[in-house]
Structures are given as C-alpha cells and as structure tokens.
Amino acid sequence: MAIVDSWTSARAARQVLALARKLLSERGQANSLGLAQDLIGRMGALAAPAWPAVFDKLAADFNPEPDAVLRAAQAYADAPGTETLRALTELSEPPRQELFRRLNRAPGGTGTLVRMRRRLLEGLKAHPDWRMVDADLLHLLSSWFNPGFLEMRQVDWNSPAQLLEQIIHHEAVHAIDGWDDLRRRLLPDRRLFAFFHPQLPNEPLIFVEVALLADMPDAIAPLIAKRSEPLPASSYKTAVFYSISNCEPGLRGVSLGNFLIKRVAEHLKRELPRIRQFCTLSPLPGFAAWLQGLSSLDDLPGLKPAQRERAAQALERLRHHSAAALAGPAALEDEALQADLRQLAAVYLIGQTPLPGGDPVARFHLDNGARLERLNPGGDRSAKGLKQSHGMMVNYLYDLDRIEEHHEAFTQGEIATARAVSGLL
Amino acid sequence: MAIVDSWTSARAARQVLALARKLLSERGQANSLGLAQDLIGRMGALAAPAWPAVFDKLAADFNPEPDAVLRAAQAYADAPGTETLRALTELSEPPRQELFRRLNRAPGGTGTLVRMRRRLLEGLKAHPDWRMVDADLLHLLSSWFNPGFLEMRQVDWNSPAQLLEQIIHHEAVHAIDGWDDLRRRLLPDRRLFAFFHPQLPNEPLIFVEVALLADMPDAIAPLIAKRSEPLPASSYKTAVFYSISNCEPGLRGVSLGNFLIKRVAEHLKRELPRIRQFCTLSPLPGFAAWLQGLSSLDDLPGLKPAQRERAAQALERLRHHSAAALAGPAALEDEALQADLRQLAAVYLIGQTPLPGGDPVARFHLDNGARLERLNPGGDRSAKGLKQSHGMMVNYLYDLDRIEEHHEAFTQGEIATARAVSGLL
Amino acid sequence: MAIVDSWTSARAARQVLALARKLLSERGQANSLGLAQDLIGRMGALAAPAWPAVFDKLAADFNPEPDAVLRAAQAYADAPGTETLRALTELSEPPRQELFRRLNRAPGGTGTLVRMRRRLLEGLKAHPDWRMVDADLLHLLSSWFNPGFLEMRQVDWNSPAQLLEQIIHHEAVHAIDGWDDLRRRLLPDRRLFAFFHPQLPNEPLIFVEVALLADMPDAIAPLIAKRSEPLPASSYKTAVFYSISNCEPGLRGVSLGNFLIKRVAEHLKRELPRIRQFCTLSPLPGFAAWLQGLSSLDDLPGLKPAQRERAAQALERLRHHSAAALAGPAALEDEALQADLRQLAAVYLIGQTPLPGGDPVARFHLDNGARLERLNPGGDRSAKGLKQSHGMMVNYLYDLDRIEEHHEAFTQGEIATARAVSGLL
Amino acid sequence: MAIVDSWTSARAARQVLALARKLLSERGQANSLGLAQDLIGRMGALAAPAWPAVFDKLAADFNPEPDAVLRAAQAYADAPGTETLRALTELSEPPRQELFRRLNRAPGGTGTLVRMRRRLLEGLKAHPDWRMVDADLLHLLSSWFNPGFLEMRQVDWNSPAQLLEQIIHHEAVHAIDGWDDLRRRLLPDRRLFAFFHPQLPNEPLIFVEVALLADMPDAIAPLIAKRSEPLPASSYKTAVFYSISNCEPGLRGVSLGNFLIKRVAEHLKRELPRIRQFCTLSPLPGFAAWLQGLSSLDDLPGLKPAQRERAAQALERLRHHSAAALAGPAALEDEALQADLRQLAAVYLIGQTPLPGGDPVARFHLDNGARLERLNPGGDRSAKGLKQSHGMMVNYLYDLDRIEEHHEAFTQGEIATARAVSGLL
C-alpha cells in the first residue's frame, strides 16, 4: 500500500516537473496560458507526499548555468553596456522565476504559488537547499503583493459571513470566542481593517483590530470584554491597535503589517479628526523566557554601572520567587514584585544588544517608527499572558509626524523611548 | 529665458535623482512609503525638458557593479549553492529594478512608472543607452500587468461616459466618429471588451471590438456602418474580432492582446453557445508598400517554380497600372486586377522568409495560433485601406481547439493556411 | 411615580396627535416634509403606555363626516359624473389615509408606519374599534409593499452577518440553532430567498428555505440535519420549500409568501433546468388539536357514507390511546396506528367544510394553487411535531403549469388532491 | 385598410378590457399575477388608435354603484362604526383603483401605468370624462412615487451613457447641445441630481442642474457657456438651481421638484459647508405675453395709487416700442427701457390677484417657500428669452431656515419679497 502510494506520488511529481519544464521552454505566449492552467490543476491535486520531490528538483535543476553566467559577467566587466547587461541579467536570474511568473499569469496562479510556498516553508528547516526556491518565491510575491496593489477594507457586521468566519479563525493574538464575541469587536468603538489582493478577493491577508478609547489603555481585558458597553463617539481620543494577525503563512516575510497600520491610521485620522493619538497595547512574548534564562546582567553592555546595579538588585529579588509563582495570579497582587518586573522589562527592551533583543513584536513596532511609550504590569492576566510575559504589556506610540525620524534612529541602533520607560533604568 | 528653463530643469532632475538614490538606500520599509510618495509627486511635476537628464542617469548610474558581479559569478561557479546564488542574483540585478519596485509600492506608483516609460520610449531611438532602463521597466511591467492580475470588463452603453470617451479616443483601427457611432458599436450584435488593472481602475489598457454575425464577413463597411439594423440574436453564428486597440503606449511589449482575444472567445462561447466560429476581419497594412518595393520574386525562396512563375505573371500585369491607379476606387471594379492582387497577397503572407514577412497584424494572429482563412479583395474601400493594402482584408480563424497546434507549427516556421488561400499559389 | 408617567404619556400622546392634525391640515407640500419628519421623530420616541391614547384618537377622530358623505353620495346618485365622483371619493376616504400617506413621504416614514401597526395589532383584540385604523393601514401597506416594489435576493454565506443574524432570529418553523446550523442551510443544496423593500433595505420581510433533492422528501430531519453531506448538483431533481417565515408582524395580512414562492420557483427553474418538481414539506399544525376535539364525524358532511364508516373505525381505534401516548415517540413505531392517523389526516384536510378547515398552512398552499400530494406519517419526530400533528407532515406540489387551474378550483370549494391522498378515504 | 385597422383596434381594446375585468374579479391573489402579466403584455402592444376605446370604458364602467354607495352612506350616517365605515370606503372607491393596484403588482406594472397616463393626458382636453380615470391614476401614482420611495442620485461624467443620453434629451429649460456641452455641465462646479424610482431604475424622473458660484448670478449665459473655465472649489459660496426638468409626462401633478430641490440643498450643505446661499436663476415665461395683453393697470387691485401711477407711466413709455423692438437685441442696450421693464416685471409678479398671476415658475418656487430676491433685466439674451420675457430673469432665494415661514405666508396670499424687488413699486 505504502509502496503504491509512493509510486503514485513519484509519478505525480514527475508529471508536474515535466509540465513545468514544458511551460518554461515555451517561446511564445500563445500556449503558455493553457499549459499554466494544466500545471495549476495538477499542483492543486498534488498530494502532500509528492511535494518534497518537486521542491528538490526546483532547487536543484532550475538554477543559472555557472559557466554561462561567468562568461556573461566577464563580458559585462570587459564592456559594460546594454547588450552585455541584458545577457547578464537574463543568465543570472534563476529560471524558476520565469516559471513562477508564467504560472502567475493564469487564473488561480497567484493562489497556487502562495499555497505552494506555505508547504515549502513547513519543510524549510529540514531541507536547507529549498531556501533557493524560497528566495525566488519571496522575491516575486513581494513584488506582486506590494501595498500599491492591495486594497484595504473595513470589516464590520455588514461584511459577508464567510469573511467573518476567516477572521475568527485567524485571530492569533487574542482569540475570538465565536460570533457574539466577534460582533462586540465590530461595534462602533471597535474597528477591524484588512488587506486584500485583487487575485484573492475573498481571502484576507492580514488584519488589525482597533479600539477607540478616551485614553491610552493599560490592560487588555476591558478591550476584549464580550459584554462591554460601546463608548459614545464623542469620547474617542485614542486609537489603539490591540491585535494584528497574518492570515496567510505563504506570505511570510512579505511586509504587510507596517503598511496596514499606517494606512489605517491615516484613514482614522480623516474619519475621526478628534483622535489625538495612535498607539498599541502589545504583548511582550519573549520576556518570561529571557528572564528565566538570565544568569547575570554582565552581557548587557548597554547598561550604565548604576543602572546595572539597580537592575541586578531587582533580579536578585525576583530569584526568591519560583517560576510558577511568577506566572501565577497571586504575583499580580504583589506591588513590589511588579515594580521589579517592570524595571527588568525595561532592561529587556532597551538594554540588550542588538536592540531590542529577540522580541519580534517590539522589533516590528520600533522598526515601524513607533516609540516605546509605557510598560503596564498586570496588563494581561490571561494564563498565556502570565506565562509568556508575567502579565506585562507594552504601549508603543505611533506619532505620525515623527515615525520616520524614529525609524531612522532605530536603524542606527537607538530606540525612541518615553521618559516613563527610560526613567525606570 | 531658455537658460533659466534649462537651469530649472536641471535642478528638478537632480532633485528627482537625489530622492531616487535616497529611496533606494533606505534599508527598512518604514520610510520607503513616504519617500516613494514624495518621489511620485516630483516625477508627476517634472517638465518634459527635465526627463532626458533623468533617463541618462538611470541608464548610467543604476547598474550592477562589474567587479562585484564577476566575483559573485566566480564564487557561484566554484561552489553553486544557496548563498553564492543569492549573492549572484542580488548583485547582477540592476539596482533600478529595486527602485522601480519601491516606487510601485506607493499609491499612484504604477501609473507613474507607466507614464515614465511612455516618455522613455519616445526618446529611445535617439538615446540607445536608455534601452537598459527600458529592459528593466518592461521586465517589471510584464510581471505586474500579467493577465492573471487584469480584469476583463464588457463595455456597453451603460458604461461610464468617461470610459466611453477614452474608447472613442483610442480606437486605432477603424476610427469612431463620435457618440452616435460608438452607440451603434455597442448595440447587442456588437460587443466591446477591455482589460483593466486594479491600480488603474478607470483606464482601459486594451480593447477589442466584436461583431456577431451569421457568416464570416468579407468587407469591413457593413460592420462599422453607423445606421445598420442590429441582427437578431438567433442569427449569431460567427464572432468577428474586427478591431483591437492598445490604449497605453507605456505598456508596449507587454503581451495583452493575445490573452484578451482568448478570454473574450471563452466568454462568448459560454454566453452564446450557438456561436460556431471565431475569426477576425483584419487589415493587411504592409501589403501595398511591399508590392511597391518588390522588384522580383527571386528572393522568395519559399515558392515552388510553378508558383513563382504564376506569381511573376500576376506581378507583371500589375506593373501596367500606376501606383495611384492601384490605390484608386476604380481598381476595385477591375476583377482581373483584384484576382492578381489576391494572388500576390497570398505570396506576401506565406511566401516570404521568415514568415510572414514584416506584417505585424499577420504575425500577431498567426503567433496566437490563428489560421490564415481567407483573403478578401475590396474588403476595405476606405482611402486608408486602398492606400495601405489596395483594399485587401484578411480573415484569421481562431479554432479554439487547435490554436495550440497552430501556434506550435508557426514557431517551427509553418503557417496554418486554409485551402482557399494556399490554393491561390 | 406612576402618576407622573401617566401624565408624561398623556402629554406625549397629545403632542403626537396635535402634530398629526397639523400635518393633515397642511395645504401645500412645502412644509409637509418637515412636519412629517418631526412627527416621525416623536413617534419613534413615544413610550408604550402612550400609544393606546393615540390609537383611540386615530380611530375616533380621523373618520369621514357622515353628513357630508351622505350628501355627496346623494349628489353622485342623482348625477354620476366626474365632479360628484371626485367629491364622493374625497369625502368618504378616512382622513387617516392621507395622514399616513404624508408620513410615508418622509425618510423613515414607511418603517415608522410598519412598526406602528405592529403595536396596533398587539392591542387589536382588546380594542375592537382600532380595527378602523388597521383597515386603513393594511390598505396602504398592501399598496406600498406590493410585489412589484419588492426585491428578491438570495441569502447565502456571503451575505452580511447582520442579515444572517436576523434570519436566525426570525426562522419560525424549524428553528436555526446558531451560525453553524445556518451555514449548513446555505450550502449549495440548500437555498434561502428573501423579499426586501427599497425603503427598508436591511430588513428581510419574509424568507423561504429550499432544499434541492433527488426526490420528494417524507421527513424533515434529514433536511435540517446540521452535519449532512451536501448533495452534488447533478442530483437535484426536486426543489422543496421546507420553511417559510415572516419577519415583520407589522405586515400581517399583506400577501407576500405566495409571490415569493412563485418567484423563487421561476428563478430556480431558470438556474437549474433539471429540476422537475417543486413541492413543500409542511407541518399540519392544527391536526392534533382537531383530533382531540373530534367527538364524532357527523358534522363532516363532505364524507360519503362508506368513507365516514371507515374513518369512524379508525377514530374508534385511536380512542384506545391516551393523548400522551399519541404524542409520544413510541406511537411512531406502531404501524397500524400510523395508518389510522394518516387516514384521519386526509379527513382533516379534505373532509371538512369549508375546506380545508382551520389549518392555515394547508389553506395557504392550496389557495396558492398547490396540490395536496402526499401525507407522511412520522415525518416530523420533534417534540413540537409530535404534539401538534402526531408527527404527520404534508407535501404540497407546485405544478407551475397548473397552479391557476388548481387555485380556481379551490375558490370553488374543491381541493386538488393526488390519488395517494384521496385514495385514503 | 382603415376599416381593417379600426376593426383590429376595436378587437384589441375589447380584449384588454375583458382581461381587465377578469383581473378585477379575481378573488385570491394566486392568479392575479399571471393575469396582470398578460394584461401588461397586451397593453404594451396596444396601438394608439385602440386606446380611446379603452379609456372610454375605464371612465364609464369602473365606477362605484350609486345606489350601493348611497345605502352605505346612509348606514354609516345612521351608525358610524367599523363595519359601516369599511363598507362605505369599499363601495365608494372606484373599482379602477383596485384594477390599477393589481396591475402594479406585476413586473413592469408601474411603468405600464405611467405610460398609460401619458397617453391619457394627451387626450384629456378632448375627452373631459377621462378626468375620472386620471384622478384615480394621479391618486395612486402620488402614493407610489412619494419622495420616501425615491432615490436621489448625482449624475456625472462617470454615469452610464444611456442615462446621460436621456438627460440631454429631457433638458427642457436650457437645451444641452450634445455630449461636449453636457460634459461641461458635469465638471466639478456644475452638479446634476435626479430622482429615480426602484421600479424604473434606469429612467430619471426629474433632474435639477446646479451651478456652484461665488455670487448670485444675474445672467444665464456664463452658467451654460460650453467652454468656460471651472471655478476652483474654494470659491464656491452660492449654489444656483439654474434648470429643473421633468422627464416623465405621465407623472404630471405628482409633486417631485419641490422635494428634489430641498434634498439637493441639504446634500450640498453637508458636502460643501462653505455654501452660504441657495438660489435660482429662473425664466419669467409669461411676462411678455402678459405685458402684450395689458391694456390698463386698473384690474390690479393690489397696487397702491402711487405705485399704480408710476407703473402706468412706465407702461405708457413702453407703448412707444413695437413688440418686435421689445423682443429684439437692441432693446437690451436701452437702459431706460430696461428699467421700465424691470418695474413692470415687479408688477407682474407681486401686483396681480391672486398672486403671482399665471406664472408657473414663480408659483412653483414661491409655493416651495422661496423668496423673490432679484430681477435681472437682460439676464437671458437668447431668442426664446427675449421673446417670452424680454430677457428678464429672476432669482428666487431658498433660505433653508425660513422656507416654511415663507410658504405659510404664500398660502395666505403674501409673497416673501426682498427690498430690491418690492422697492421697485
């Protein structure tokens, strides 16, 4: 049985590759479309066990010819010019790229390539050479899913049920507990915006959830409470990005969140001129693990001696609590302990080298040009929040007039930090 | 005055280039969007005299580093692998491409690049080195305007007036003489389909006009008559593509017409299952000039001796008529003369090497997989028709089941030809 | 406190009535709109206790003047003609109608009147004189909600969530148990169609649910099973209307269901030419109560002696079972008992005078021109089904070519009945 | 031949009437729809000569029964109550109304009735008894085309060509000279709004053209100049209704213009908060004819002696000019003459009894609550303008806060008049 399956898989993979080679060798475009449609059909029907063979071949066989490239590079170096350059760029581009472009021309091609990359990424660790294939896919998808081509749509209770169902499914930060919970998140003081691509009109690519509040929030629970009373529009002063979720793993590495946040901020500024500030209420997912693994503060060269001294004292005090105790609800009631946690969270965010250590959420917002605004101990009292970050949450502030400046500074290794945080050190 | 202008132009061009370099050097994506928007604004405001300096620099300065490429090619040749390949592809791609991709990310970027290429093409002959810039633009635009991203829409009398106005303006084959003429071409027995890109939703890229008839037509006049009575739907048996027009010179070389014709054919087949055949009624624009310049038939090696003999006799007979006479309406009444013209049109289409000589319309349809079906002397009695082709028109037949086969044959140097035409030789 | 409330109510009612009189007395139309908008606002804010006073006055004060009408009728009888007729129709129409028409002209007017009638109907039994108001409202709403003005829309999983939520809420026949249940009822082999009015674009007025099946069904459970596998489209042969629900009590008496069913049938016939038959699977809600109250068959003059004899035997046998036993699940397993129930159901439907007794569902479909096609004992095994109809369900067949004939017969007191049912007597 | 036609007509009319009687006698609603559809089909095919017979019968045969009405009126007078009222309203309503309501239920019914009334109105003068039919049609159409059911849409250069074509066709005040002229009237400083009914979604019912200007205009030519430069949005201070046209003669008497103007004014106020005033620039169509027929000012009792004296002097001076001279372009250059005309125009508008004499445009705006704001001699120098009104144009001002007050005053016989006009007397 397994042997039969394996035979079938191998044959299906060979057929896909043969068709791919045929599509790539097609000179004109008259047949390309038909061939691409065939290939898309076969790829859609290809079973999981058949894919590794396809990826292996895509990585091994669809590369530039080393000798030809070398000759072209030599010719270009000898006489840089239109013709030598053309030859060079043609020969040095992996033929895979042209194959993917041709697939993308046919109906359903874009979706097929995105789904193919999803599979590829799942096996990437085990097959390092597939990275060559991935580089080409990422290069092309970044071009095709560039924000100029994306459409931002507000999702609300008037949106199609099939779309809302996907939102429920993909919310990755603060899970949505069914339709009633979603409905609350779509009342007027909550907004949800998503990016769509014209080729995948019914599939949200990424979405962000926004709460319209009077003030910058210090805890997540009220924002996602299912039965809270909606705030009247006259009170909206602060727009809080409290959750951002990617829906499509096949687009990993394609920059979307950054553009979505900024486009939403501009949209809300126009619609609600009273909004004074845009900020986040974000988790600090790596904090607990970092703290756990922290033996000393010596390898944090960014701290000044006095800072290091005080942080070491805080760390010392924390050592008296077991890991379980630190991640338990009782810890939230211990004010001194919370103060120590806050101080070490500041160290975690602005004391590491390179900044901001390994925290992906912090890196995302800071690289976007946000400012590290406030630390909120006890901001997330969920089990997950306690376990990953001892309940700590962070506000990052998006000051639309200064995000370029902050981003610039961040690329120079400097974090824009409000005094409320920097003063903790 | 001219000096002042020239100074202003030069300064504006320098500013554009400086911004372009800044955009390209930006590492993260946070600032890219803002920079790209600035650059798009400046490019939109750049006066005509400033562009050549921009194009010169784009051609001269945004190229791969010859030495770096050579080293990367050597490294790749020594040890082909993920890392050496990544280095090679990065270093051998002209940095212009990344610049254009970043522009394309911002609102309005796509349109700006298309309009920039329009300008570039206008000066290409005079500035051969701009071809390097053009190659990169074409490469990227082909990827962004691939048919998978395009939307086909039917244009009819319910379409927005602003769109219909563009159709009137861009019809290149059989000019539309105002709104009443257009209206006739949108009655139920005439159809018009266009491609649109999501980034340019109000600008048709290319459109094709279709007549629904009982039989394959042999003359254009009845198809574009302003006051003709619409045919009842029950009589539709043949769909005739009688005009195809590109609207956007900045997309020259991006393959659109081929895909449009096929998508329209599929659409009509679904909507009107009674349609039995799809064909064109096409001009033969190079015929008169070719005939004029034809001194002998000796350099047409494709002809067999007997064919050459008969064609030479026909040519000889035509020599008795002046060029003016051949392009005059009286010639249309001379049956013997028309027979000679038809024979030589067959030679023009299937006797040249390489096939089909320099006729762009014939090349377009034959490469698409159409069959050369019939020659129609006197099919176009307009002044332009008489002048360019002595009134000759051609039907190319799109047999949807055989277009791949015909295309394949054409790439091998063979033209699919109906006996009605091949028999003329 | 109650006294204060009562004072407030009385004052609010007086204000509404004063405004109503002002609106009615307005001669031109310039001010009508503003007055109507004011009145709509006040009516929307009127608390429940204030309404009876409004309805009382509407019934008492907005009537034709008896003397004036009598004089006009005399004048018309003396000299029938344009002027006497005009005077008569003007004077005999209750001024309420003009009031309601003026309200209906303003934004939100239609909805306000529909909601007002909803309240009025709730109190109609206790206030018989309100029937005069109701007659005028029904007269006008029938004109404004005539099917020519309604839009039929298919509701599916792509419909707005807010609409689907209303569907879940209003399904009156076979309750929808949440979003997953609804989703199953919107898969391709289930359809849902609703009527909308342009003035109330987000409020479904009535909807019908359809199952696409191979054969006429004899039980409801498989049709509303939450996890059933969708049938492939190639198997659709029968369209079954298995549930029809009104959403708006304020439109009671306005004929909607009849038109909806026919429009849906025509729509499905066009979309799915393979559908051979349209039928219902309907409850028999009054059957159990009728049977319970049936002392003898003597007052069913429609039965012939032999029929009466056999029915009486069946009835006699049923007397041996307690009411609880008849409505219990065990009864479903007793074949003889089910046969007796089926026979008496036939008596219930076609033996009463006038036909079909008091069963509203039967009356609805038979008056629509459907044929009584089949009785299905045990078709509804739910507690409600057992209690109301001993589990009996009915198929009514909509033969589109014969519905007029059947309807005609029904108005003459004759029920179109398939032999499978008439043979039971 | 004529005899044959007449026979055919008579038969077709009889068939229509027979079907109408059948539809009306139908008790249930099951067959109504089918019958109504048949009848609509036949009415659509009915030739012009057949209609008078239909209208004659509709006027003669579909009336209330005099005796029955009289008995019902007596019964109602004896005992006013629910049942006697119901009987009265049923018996006194002409059965025509129910017939028309049933027609209106079927697809296409509304359009059929509107077109039928168009025909009816054309023959109304010659057939006074058709007024009974017209009264019923107007009664129902007023209810169905009430503004609450109408949709206001802005028409612009993005609107469907088929709609724009109708606009060109129906503009009745200042003719639109083809597509280019229309295009100018749709540039940003010109607006066009129309009412549509859901049952006739592609047919504008009435439309108004608006110019956005800095100041109240005193001449029409610049507003409708084909090549004028659009005004920048920052200059818009005044919105001028410069043309209002009904598209559907079958809706004569149904109040639409009043509501359209107010809804447009509210829409513009929201969109362009800088707009300070709304006014018209209107013709004075009856002025020249009135002046021509004016023998003395004695029958204008509204004038005070001094006013009469001065007006008589002006009239005397005008007597020195021939009618042709007064309607010629030279008259426009004679300042003294223009002053006299202005004075008499004021007399024409505010000196007649009842106000404002027979001028339909003045009556329309004044009854809407507008104020008579300014007289503009030489405002319309077109041949038609000179002939009908000696070139005089009028501004009526819509002060949204005071239109109710002005309308109220007008119904009391008083015209709201700016001092600039009243001072002329």
Automatic annotation (TrEMBL), chains A, B, C, D:
<dbReference type="InterPro" id="IPR042303">
    <property type="entry name" value="Malonyl_CoA_deC_C_sf"/>
</dbReference>
<dbReference type="InterPro" id="IPR007956">
    <property type="entry name" value="Malonyl_CoA_deC_C"/>
</dbReference>
<dbReference type="GO" id="GO:0006633">
    <property type="term" value="P:fatty acid biosynthetic process"/>
</dbReference>
<feature type="domain" description="Malonyl-CoA decarboxylase N-terminal">
    <location>
        <begin position="62"/>
        <end position="145"/>
    </location>
</feature>
<protein>
    <submittedName>
        <fullName>Decarboxylase</fullName>
    </submittedName>
</protein>
<dbReference type="InterPro" id="IPR038351">
    <property type="entry name" value="MCD_N_sf"/>
</dbReference>
<dbReference type="InterPro" id="IPR035372">
    <property type="entry name" value="MCD_N"/>
</dbReference>
<dbReference type="InterPro" id="IPR038917">
    <property type="entry name" value="Malonyl_CoA_deC"/>
</dbReference>
<dbReference type="Pfam" id="PF17408">
    <property type="entry name" value="MCD_N"/>
</dbReference>
<dbReference type="GO" id="GO:0050080">
    <property type="term" value="F:malonyl-CoA decarboxylase activity"/>
</dbReference>
<dbReference type="Pfam" id="PF05292">
    <property type="entry name" value="MCD"/>
</dbReference>
<feature type="domain" description="Malonyl-CoA decarboxylase C-terminal">
    <location>
        <begin position="148"/>
        <end position="399"/>
    </location>
</feature>
